[in-house]
Amino acid sequence: MKHFINLKDIKTEDLKKILRDAKKRKSKRKNLNTLDIDKGAPLNGKILIQMFEKPSLRTRLSFYLAIRQLGGGTITLRSNELHLGKGGETLADTAKILSTYGDGFMLRTDSDKKINEFVKHIKIPLINGLSPSSHPTQILSDIFTIEEIKKKPISKLNICWIGDSNNVLNSLIVASVKFSFDLSVACPKNYKPKKFIMDWLKENKRNIKIFHNPKNAVKNADVIFSDKVISLNDKVDVKKKIKDFKKFYIDSNLIKSAPKSIFLHCLPRGGEVSEKVFLGKKSHVWQQARNRVHVQKSILMYCFGKLR
Length: 308
Ligand code: CP
Ligand code: NVA
Description:
Elements: H1 12-27, E1 47-52, H2 58-69, E2 73-78, H3 83-87, H4 91-101, E3 104-108, H5 112-121, E4 126-128, H6 136-150, E5 158-162, H7 167-178, E6 182-186, H8 195-203, E7 209-211, H9 214-218, E8 223-226, H10 238-244, H11 252-256, E9 262-265, H12 275-278, H13 285-303
Parallel strand pairs: 1-2, 1-3, 3-4, 5-6, 5-8, 6-7, 8-9
Helix pairs in contact: 1-6, 1-13, 2-13, 4-5, 6-7, 6-13
Bound molecules: phosphoric acid mono(formamide)ester and norvaline.
The site of phosphoric acid mono(formamide)ester has 8 residues, from helix 2.
């Protein structure tokens, strides 16, 4: 069994294997219904326990469908209904019980420390469904979407991120090393990528380009990514932060500076992108969201040691 916690810790070869498996599985589902099970029901009898400490629509549903389509099932827990929260049950005991009842555990958490603690005690695969510092399942799925649309390996494309230096960007930065692609980031001066991630880049002898003028950042972009300015874990002066990002608003005018680009956004959206761009021809956000089911399936296959 394997955990899926941070792209940093997963071999590039395995990440690529996951993407190849997702492509194969997706192509075989063309004539199937939503709850039809993939041939061979590879995760027959397995249960994935999902726990959310923060809201989720896509991650919750895509993991639900993913495990069901592989022949297994899922149960979703709300952290505030467990003894772990108010009842004072330890995380270690909770992890042991999860391992007793379940076959896999998907956690969306407000604390990276909690993931590290769970890993110490859990005996089943642990999947990070978003933490304050990363969102690995999202970015792996987004690479799948990019390669599907552009019909090229991502290593041959210029990727541009406009917006906050948050968990999704951190995973995109890690992916830029794992998959060797060029990444430009446009953000205000006071919102540059965090030191820990820049240090990691340096250790891996790679760099990204940082711009404070979005027009310069998108010039050669094949893909423009964005995300909400205010994330779930943000404890900031919301009005000030939104004002600080005003220059980084993504509208048709900005997109015109990147003629060959597509637009992606993990959702949910805030006010960082115009309706016209979000719903426009270059935007592939719905396909991006749908693809998460296919990639989560192959992530589960990897975690359960079933990926060929
Ligand atoms: N993109 C994403 O993770 O969406 P949810 O927060 O709805 O799961
Ligand atoms: N950066 C966002 C991603 C939501 C899927 C957040 O953490 O809220």
